[in-house]
Amino acid sequence: MTAELVRGQNHPLPGTRVEIRVSAAQPVVAGATLCDDQHKVRGASWVAHPGAPTLPGLEVSRQAAADHRLAVDLEALPGEAHRVNVLLALPVGTAGPVSFGAVAAPFVAVTALDGTEIASYTLTDLTTESAVVALELYRRQDAWKVRAVGQGYAGGLAEMLHDQGLPQAQELAAAVNEAVAQGLARSVAPPPPRPADGTRVRAAAQGQTAPGPHAPVPADGHPVGPPHPPAPEGTPAPQAVTPVPQQPVAPAPQGTPAPRQPGDATPPPPPGDTGPVDYTHPRRQTAAPPPPPPAAPEPSPGQPARPVAGDATGWSMEERLYNQVWGMFEDLARTTAAYRSAVDFADSRMEQELDKALSDPRNRIGGAGDAARETARAKHTALTDQAKTALDRDLAQLAAEADVVEPALPPAFADWSNPVWHAYRAPMEIPMAVRLGALHLPERPDLRIPMLVRLPLERGLWIDSGRSGLDALTDSEALPRLALDSAVAHAARLLAAYPPGEFTVHVIDPVGTGAAAFAPLLESGALDEPPASGAAGVSALLTRLTQRVDLVQMAVRGGVASSLPPDLDTGEHLLVVHDFPHGFDDRAVTQLRYLADEGPAVGVHLMMVADREDAREYGPLLDPLWRALLRLTPVPDDHLADPWVGHAWTYEPPLPPPGSEVLHHVLAGVGRARRTGSR
């Protein structure tokens, strides 16, 4: 029976390999410290955090998330370590809450090897604290126990680490915050809150689970457990150092819309209305969506459910497809994590059995040692084969689902190769999201998940024209050209997603080196004006956009939307900046940083086509700018992470097929719609 602890209460641990599960309503940083018999942390090497997630016998998550799993092997800890403190902290420098008193109480649980919950603790009564020691695992007379601590610190990580005796607490806290900021900069936007009942929103045939992991296989504290028999679910940390088999869990809820829930919002108010300018999606609703459409006919016994396009909940087919794509994304992340965990566990188990066999002198004579080695290898093969069988089954079902879903996607979600683009017409309403590429994992490179980003954009884009991926190119000049082509393709997608007149693209090309790439945008009429060039042109455009941001911000904050000029364009704006930082003075750089930080909230978005190395002359001044943008590459690159497990996903940019005229066809349609003001 699970022990539900209160602050200060302890409970014995039945084994030395456990998993700590953390669940919070907001992304939090999870870490752990080791303490000696004097309750002191001896140095930074005794702290596991996102920047250094592994210690002997301990691994924590590499990024901030709402759910974590920490793997702990108490026998593998250093001999001088007598205590493990589990730490939680709110990320610094984000738009989220600054104290635990402003969020729902975090929940932590300790589970055994088989996933059985040993003890749990809900951290209540927190107020101004931004960091807290949630639990401690401590040694008492050669046995280990867990105690609910709940000690909070208003001074954050630095104060907490200092209280544990770490001399360089301030420096380490800064390193942790930097690692978390870098993790947030590379992560795909997290999914929206899960349904209140914790159920998955994707429909499944009666008696069948939705596509996802199936048969249980040993796992090691890795983010995901193989889920077939339904069981409590949590979000793990990536690749646990110490294998800890985990409980099979049920497929996690799938609907992963971004933080804004679908809801009805009114368009910008007309002159004379005193309400604020509203830049939210015009069809987002807050009520619960209707049930999904009927599932496919029940399959034959023992057969997986037949995939159906749009088998998730939603108010429209578009929303159901959006939720379904995110569900496929999550399923692939979790089933792959389960497989990797099982393989890691099998490897670790074989190494331990071989070490044990070789450490026994009796096995060094005769065939006993050979028999022990063969037995260990046979167990390893059986475990990995079992895991591979489950993985192949799950991937096959996801691939079948992708084959059904991809052709059914609307233009905003579809790949350029989808025939839906050939019948493109300007939309009457803004879609929920836009596709900015595709993601895949090495276990199944041909299974690509559309990378859908909610509209309106909540952060700017950085198209990296630097040396990432240069090894795959024979021409050193090819990468900047590809980056520019990728930026034009992204801009075209955004223009095509909005109704006529509701999205405007501006271009800065200081010395005109991108004229050929930007020509399709200009010639089609998708641009209202030629790209800004020269110091005067760059300065004028940046000044105009920053003044627009200032003006709308003041009107919104002051509640005087009626004071806005009647000719002010309240639609969305995108500024594409090419060849940064060449041709930009300090004032222009400051304006760009301002647009990146303040623009998205009032409908002005930034797309940088730049090489970060070229901006090194500005020193650390521009580091916040890069972190504020979502980095995308013009060639496949594994720099993005999912919000559940933290896998490194290979990102593929949304470039049209070679020789295709689809981009020009779509831009021509956009230009016609802009000129006529109709579809």
How is this structure best described in words?
This protein is α+β, with helices and mostly antiparallel strands and 679 residues long. The chain folds into three domains: 3-186, sav2460 like domains (Lipoxygenase-1, Sandwich), CATH 2.60.60.30; 207-408, no CATH class; 427-676, P-loop containing nucleotide triphosphate hydrolases (Rossmann fold, 3-Layer(aba) Sandwich), CATH 3.40.50. It is 29% helix and 20% strand. It contains ten helices and 21 strands. The strands form three sheets. Strands 1, 2, 3, 4, 5, 6, 7, 8, 9, 10, 11 and 12 form a twelve-stranded mixed sheet that branches. A five-stranded parallel sheet has the order 16-17-18-15-19, sandwiched between helices. Strand 20 (637-641) and strand 21 (648-652) form a beta hairpin.
- Class per helix and strand makeup: alpha+beta
Number of domain units: 3
Give helix % range: 25-40%
N-to-C span: 63 Å
Give Rg in angstroms.
27 Å
- Mean pLDDT across the residues is 79
What would you call the shape? Answer: globular
- The number of helices is 10
| Uncertain residue ranges | 194-287
Main sheet record: 12 strands, mixed
- Strands, total number: 21
Strand content: 15-25%
CATH superfamily of the largest domain: P-loop containing nucleotide triphosphate hydrolases
- Gross CATH architecture of the largest domain: 3-Layer(aba) Sandwich
